[in-house]
């Protein structure tokens, strides 16, 4: 069946890509002369129409130019070009027939001057006019990285795509993992879909290859032909910030008339098709038949999922296939354009995996990181030549910073997300953070902030004479580059005079000083009780915050994966890298920095150093111990395919090296590690080594599973042959060009300025110093020494040990406040990373049903990483319960555990592990520790999918007491002075009326939570060592005050309100929530009164007080609509009244399992209703569990419709409010459990009507293949989600079982049923309510 993806009426695009130079952050037509440097050359052209070739730096003209003249290989006597076509600039390095190197930098888009930047640059370096043909016989090779496809993905400007998938799965890619990108966003924006229409086909394989339904090619032909004749719809798009990254998203855009629609001549139809069928990674015959049909009909691009990504997980594989179909035609047109003018020249492109591939084989899915991959290749190869074998690549540009790690082999990610699209293809592991030279400076009245907004190239920083970044909320009209101008690290007198209307003026230091004076006055006025700060101190503070962002990006790819960097080298490149490299290295404890002489064009340089690579993968999914001889034949087949592809590119088979790898994981887990292949013992040893490095432990005796295997064929395209400079001339003495005042290390210092071209091998410069180079500026901070090596590179070394303490007062200041906001959140996030890495269960590791937090000595929340909203704020009650119960008895090394709903817990499956933190000295000798008062507390909470109770999965729909729900744990000592009390814990888990059915999993996850807390403890000790105990504890108070002020500000915009919201009822209870909100505008506080709420229920629809608190804090945090920390301060302006023995404040032994998952959603919707801010969302988590007493158990929450607001529609098929857990991929679900997912799609029409419509719910049908116990616990099966201001309600949900016999068993909002083979369970989730009266237009 053919489906058109619903889209609004008018096409509109708001630019996402910031037009800025990734090298320096300069405006695109200004960078060129900066790239030349003040003494390196001249500017070609002076007007926009003639600025095509913005200047060249000829290596032969500089004394150190020949250091790498043979770096890309020279044996053919012809030209060779290495090109990095970026979004703003195209960098080109040319190896000339005489062996010299030249570089040029041209605008990637300049249609008034030339058609293509790369070809223009080639002609320019060959001395040709744009009208001259390129003599291909004089060129040995052109090696290129390109962002053509990447930009098309970011801007959603790819080809029109038809998605083909199994019947019942048309929305599988749209629903994805069901999580929302920003848990505090009420107007939920999801990344825009890449496909325009969907065809569902009959034809389905089971997980074992059985044909469930035969392929209907006749019906497919009809649908394919329809798509081919379909004109394009309008696809409006806006730019939305998601997790700090601008991403194109879908939106509703209405107009009364649009001449475009009546005059536009549509294209003939869809010409790209992406075919993704269930289990096609292994059983591909149906995809092949459909692919043949598509070719026959006339589709020009046919992408088959088993070819683009032959691995399990239909969502990621489907997204990858869609990306390939979406981008390959765009890429092909560009490749053909370039190839047509190069003739028979060998043309190769850089792939995302770091290898070159012949142009005719280059695919869209392999192009996403084409440019950045070249930078990592160059960083790795040049550093190895220089003797540095463990590096962190640091590429800082104008808008963002890319970081990567290398230690002898390229780090690759096999599953990642780019621009909101899940990709399952080998890519360089590159982490990008929105912090660059153009990052906008902000002051919100309390804190200094940097980014993620960027000034881009237009207007750029204030010093560029284009007005600066005006109009950004809380912005001060300045960017990071302006900080360096004020601090004296960027010197206008040494910058080309290419700014202003006539492009004849220098950097505008005056406007920078004026604006810093203004913001400094604002800050000093806001902190009038503190000594005034100077503009230099403020600029230095902003810079410090930006550096912390970049350092956190490095930690993300290293320290959070168990990799230490104190012995690594920071390889700095990109035009802005040299200005910040020393500061970033200091923030990470790194002591060496390497800067190649071509660091400003290093990505282009990497194209010349890259090898030809081909990777082939195959699914295995078998125990390592059970692999037979077939694995060898599979490896042989992959090796033949990979080798053939490389040979087809003109490589001698004898020059090809093969590498065999395997993705290995522990049985029952979903996190695989890439290991070297060998004998089973060798594979196991390698896995243990990698697992211990990344996670800190191994599971002795746990079986290994080979998930997939890969073969990489590699052929070198030329060796790196380093040359050396002649020794320094006799009598040489390096003299500075000038001496200036520069603010470094908290002081204004006399700083010499040197020209890199004047340096000779062996020259050493001690910081503070500034080095001007042709392609950037290097700042040598105090304590660092810079030396020019014999190969012409700069190596910076810290020669004075860095002091790890910072003199910071205990009084609040806006710089340190932001530093500690970020620091405390980073500690909580580090704990979360550790817990996810170390945990055993799918529930924690894959569904991410956990939270981690940091607390002050009194148990007040300081930072809660935004994992699961229902946990927000509620863990504080647990910590306070431990403090009260253990007063005076707590020792270093102790750890406690509880899940008691009446002592801060939520429900029985949510187990909280709490660790007191003492001084570092106290934790060194645990065996002799004695009771004392903790300095801090850390805690982690995880949902254990089995903890006893009357039904498997510990989510019994009909529990009547807490005992029915599982094992109650109240202030139990888990670890005694460093010793895990395993015997006692086992007894706790089994000595119960309804014991746990999976004790080993419980123990493993408890150990993981202990490890997460230990990670937090270590990070807190680092903070105390840096700032001092008193400062850390005082800033814990200050960050709470900051959050309190943000909530008080939003309270002034609210008005009194009252709302009562019924829940589904039955013969056992009639639950409802009543909330009255009273706002005191003078005191800027509010009272939230639950008086009148239903009494404690005999059912399990009771929410402990901690849950109600979490719901309130969540609502008010969403209303702030700003990036503020979530901590105990958010609650200070709120007076919450919880009547005792009600369903929102029950007493023992009330059952509470539905309180956490259902009542919490009702409280949230009810509070939004009382405030008049948002219609009801689906109002349930749709808790679905199945299992048996043999250890099979599974639990998931299922998405639905979001409520509409006063200015937006509700989002379809997404998790809302108090949960945001991930959904298991359908192929994984079918592989692990005896079931078949028959349908998973959007429930069209289930959202409420209104001026703004409510979001739609989903439909999910699961057919079981074995007897199991299935339970459902939900809400809104009889009471519909409400609309507001005249908006209609959303449709109620449904749950029912269709027996194999055809009999239907209706379940209502809660129930348990025994299913047999062939039975199908159907779940239809509610839609969200509408907002405002429908106009009828």
Report strand order across the widest sheet: 23-18-17-27-28-39-38-35
Oligomer: single chain
Find the structural class using helix and strand composition.
alpha+beta
Number of strands: 59
Pick out the low-confidence regions: 4-75, 234-268
Can you characterise this structure?
The chain has about 1350 residues and is an alpha+beta fold. Helix content is about 25%, strand content about 25%. The protein contains 26 helices and 59 strands. Strands 23-18-17-27-28-39-38-35 form an 8-stranded mixed beta sheet, sandwiched between helices. Strands 2-5-4-3-6-15-16 form a 7-stranded mixed beta sheet. Strands 41-40-44-43-42-45-46 form a 7-stranded antiparallel beta sheet, sandwiched between helices. A hairpin with a 3-residue loop joins strand 3 (about 80-85) and strand 4 (about 90-95). Helix 10 packs across helix 15 (about 600-610), helix 13 runs parallel beside helix 18 and helix 18 (about 815-840) crosses helix 23. The protein starts with a strand and ends in a 13-residue tail after the last strand.
Key words describing this protein structure:
1337 residues; alpha+beta; eight-stranded mixed sheet; 26 helices; 59 strands; globular
Short description:
The protein has 1337 residues and is an alpha+beta fold.
């Amino acid at each position: 069946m053919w489906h058109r993806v619903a889209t609004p009426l008018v096409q509109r695009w708001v630019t996402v890509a910031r037009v800025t130079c990734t090298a320096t952050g300069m405006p695109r037509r200004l960078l060129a002369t900066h790239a030349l440097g003040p003494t390196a050359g001249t500017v070609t052209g002076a007007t926009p129409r003639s600025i095509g070739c913005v200047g060249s730096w000829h290596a032969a003209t500089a004394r150190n130019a020949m250091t790498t003249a043979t770096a890309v290989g020279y044996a053919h006597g012809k030209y060779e070009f290495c090109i990095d076509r970026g979004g703003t600039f195209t960098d080109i390095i040319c190896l000339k027939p005489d062996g010299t190197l030249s570089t040029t930098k041209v605008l990637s888009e300049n249609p008034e001057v030339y058609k293509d930047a790369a070809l223009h640059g080639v002609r320019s370096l060959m001395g040709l006019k744009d009208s001259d043909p390129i003599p291909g016989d004089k060129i040995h090779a052109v090696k290129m990285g390109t962002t053509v496809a990447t930009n098309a993905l970011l801007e959603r400007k790819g080809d029109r795509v038809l998605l083909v998938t199994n019947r019942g799965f048309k929305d599988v890619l749209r629903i994805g993992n069901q999580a929302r990108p920003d848990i505090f966003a009420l107007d939920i924006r999801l990344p825009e879909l890449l496909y325009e229409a969907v065809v569902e086909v009959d034809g389905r394989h089971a997980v074992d290859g059985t044909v469930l339904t035969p392929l209907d090619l006749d019906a497919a032909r009809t649908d394919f032909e329809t798509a081919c004749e379909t004109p394009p719809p309008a696809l409006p798009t806006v730019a939305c910030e998601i997790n700090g990254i601008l991403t194109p998203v879908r939106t509703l855009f209405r107009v009364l008339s649009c001449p475009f629609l009546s005059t536009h001549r549509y294209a003939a139809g869809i010409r790209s098709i992406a075919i993704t069928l269930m289990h096609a990674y292994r059983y591909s015959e149906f995809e092949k038949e459909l692919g043949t049909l598509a070719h026959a009909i006339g589709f020009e691009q046919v992408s088959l999922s088993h070819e683009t990504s032959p691995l399990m997980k239909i969502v990621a594989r489907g997204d990858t296939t869609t990306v390939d179909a979406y981008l390959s035609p765009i890429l092909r047109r560009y490749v053909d354009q370039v190839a047509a003018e190069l003739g028979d020249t060998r043309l190769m492109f850089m792939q995302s995996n770091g290898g070159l591939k012949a142009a005719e084989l280059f695919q869209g899915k392999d192009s996403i990181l084409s440019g950045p991959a070249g930078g990592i290749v160059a960083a790795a190869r040049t550093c190895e030549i220089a003797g540095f074998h463990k590096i962190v690549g640091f590429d800082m540009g104008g808008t963002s910073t890319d970081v990567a790690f290398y230690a002898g082999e390229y780090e690759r990610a096999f599953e990642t997300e780019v621009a909101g699209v899940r990709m399952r293809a080998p890519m360089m592991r590159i982490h990008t953070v929105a912090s660059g030279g153009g990052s906008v400076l902000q002051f919100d009245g309390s804190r200094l902030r940097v980014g993620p907004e960027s000034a881009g190239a237009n207007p750029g920083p204030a010093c560029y004479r284009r007005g600066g970044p005006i109009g950004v909320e809380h912005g001060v009209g300045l960017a990071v580059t302006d900080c360096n101008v004020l601090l004296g690290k960027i010197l206008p007198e040494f910058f080309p005079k290419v700014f202003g209307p006539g492009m004849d003026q220098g950097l505008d230091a005056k406007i920078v000083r004026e604006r810093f004076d203004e913001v400094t006055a604002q800050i000093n006025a806001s902190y009038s009780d503190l000594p005034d700060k100077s503009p230099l101190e403020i600029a230095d503070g902003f810079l410090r915050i930006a550096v912390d962002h970049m350092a956190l990006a490095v930690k993300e790819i290293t320290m959070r994966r168990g990799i230490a960097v104190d012995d690594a080298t920071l390889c700095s490149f990109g035009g802005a890298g040299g200005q910040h490299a020393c500061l970033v290295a200091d923030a990470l404890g790194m002591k060496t920095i390497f800067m190649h002489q071509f660091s400003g064009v290093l990505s282009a340089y990497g194209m010349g150093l890259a090898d030809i690579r081909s990777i082939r993968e195959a699914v295995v999914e078998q125990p390592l111990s059970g692999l037979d001889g077939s694995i060898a034949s599979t490896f042989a087949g992959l090796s033949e395919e990979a080798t053939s592809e490389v040979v087809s590119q003109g490589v001698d088979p004898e020059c090809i090296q093969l590498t065999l790898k395997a993705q290995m994981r522990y049985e029952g887990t979903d996190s695989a590690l890439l290991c070297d292949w060998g004998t089973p013992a060798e594979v196991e040893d390698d896995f243990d080594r990698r697992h211990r490095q990344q996670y800190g432990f191994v599971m002795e005796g746990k079986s290994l599973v080979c998930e997939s295997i890969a073969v990489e064929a590699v052929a070198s395209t030329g060796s790196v042959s380093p040359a050396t400079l002649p020794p320094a001339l006799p009598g040489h003495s390096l003299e500075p060009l000038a001496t200036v005042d520069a603010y470094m290390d908290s002081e204004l210092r006399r700083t010499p300025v040197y020209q890199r071209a004047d340096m000779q091998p062996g020259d050493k410069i001690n910081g503070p110093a500034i080095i001007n180079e042709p392609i950037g500026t290097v700042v040598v901070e105090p304590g660092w020494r810079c030396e020019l090596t014999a190969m012409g590179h700069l190596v910076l070394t810290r020669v004075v040990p860095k002091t790890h303490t910072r003199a910071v007062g205990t009084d609040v200041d806006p710089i340190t406040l932001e530093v500690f906001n970020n620091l405390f959140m980073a500690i909580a996030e580090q704990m979360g990373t550790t817990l996810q890495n170390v945990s055993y269960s799918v529930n924690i590791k894959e569904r991410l049903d956990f939270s981690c937090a940091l607390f002050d000595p009194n148990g007040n929340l300081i930072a809660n990483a935004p994992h699961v909203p229902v946990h927000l704020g509620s863990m504080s009650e647990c910590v306070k319960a431990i403090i009260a119960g253990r007063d005076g008895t707590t020792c270093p090394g102790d750890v406690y555990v509880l899940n008691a709903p009446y002592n801060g817990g939520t429900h029985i499956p949510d187990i909280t592990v709490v660790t007191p933190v003492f001084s570092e000295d106290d934790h060194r000798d645990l065996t002799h520790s004695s009771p004392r008062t903790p300095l801090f507390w850390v805690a982690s909470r995880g949902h254990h999918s089995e903890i006893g109770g009357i039904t498997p999965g510990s989510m019994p729909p009909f529990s009547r007491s807490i005992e029915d729900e599982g094992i109650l744990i109240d202030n139990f000592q888990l670890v005694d002075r460093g010793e895990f009390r395993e015997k006692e814990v086992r007894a706790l888990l089994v000595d119960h009326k309804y014991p746990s059915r999976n004790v080993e999993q419980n123990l493993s996850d408890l150990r993981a939570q202990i490890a997460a807390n230990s990670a937090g403890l270590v990070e807190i000790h680092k903070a105390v060592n840096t700032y001092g105990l008193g400062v850390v504890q005082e800033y814990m108070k200050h960050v709470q005050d900051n959050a309190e002020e943000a909530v008080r500000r939003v309270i002034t915009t609210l008005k009194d309100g009252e709302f009562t919201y019924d829940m589904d009822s039955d013969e056992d209870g009639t639950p409802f929530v009543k909330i009255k909100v009273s706002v005191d505008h003078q005191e800027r506080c509010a009272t939230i009164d639950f008086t009148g709420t239903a009494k404690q229920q005999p059912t399990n629809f009771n929410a402990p007080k901690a849950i109600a608190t979490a719901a309130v804090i969540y609502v008010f945090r969403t209303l702030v609509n700003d990036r503020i920390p979530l901590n105990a301060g958010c609650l200070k302006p709120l007076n919450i009244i919880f009547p005792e023995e009600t369903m929102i404040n029950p007493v023992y032994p009330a059952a509470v399992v539905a309180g956490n998952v259902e009542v919490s959603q009702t409280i949230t919707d009810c509070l939004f209703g009382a405030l008049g801010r948002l219609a009801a969302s689906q109002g349930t988590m749709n808790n679905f569990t199945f299992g048996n007493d043999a250890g099979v158990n599974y639990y998931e929450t299922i998405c639905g419709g979001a409520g509409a607001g006063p200015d937006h529609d509700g989002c379809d098929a997404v998790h809302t409010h108090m949960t945001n857990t991930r959904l298991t991929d359908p192929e994984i679900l079918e592989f692990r459990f005896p079931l078949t997912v028959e349908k998973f799609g959007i429930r069209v029409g289930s959202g409420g009507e209104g001026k703004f419509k409510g979001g739609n719910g989903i439909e999910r049908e699961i057919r079981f293949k074995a007897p199991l116990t299935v339970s459902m616990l939900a809400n809104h099966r009889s009471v519909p989600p409400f609309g507001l201001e005249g908006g209609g309600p959303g449709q109620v949900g449904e749950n029912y079982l269709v027996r194999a016999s055809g009999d239907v068993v209706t379940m209502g909002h809660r129930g348990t049923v025994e299913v047999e083979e062939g039975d199908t369970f159907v779940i239809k989730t509610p839609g969200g309510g509408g907002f405002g009266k429908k106009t009828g237009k």
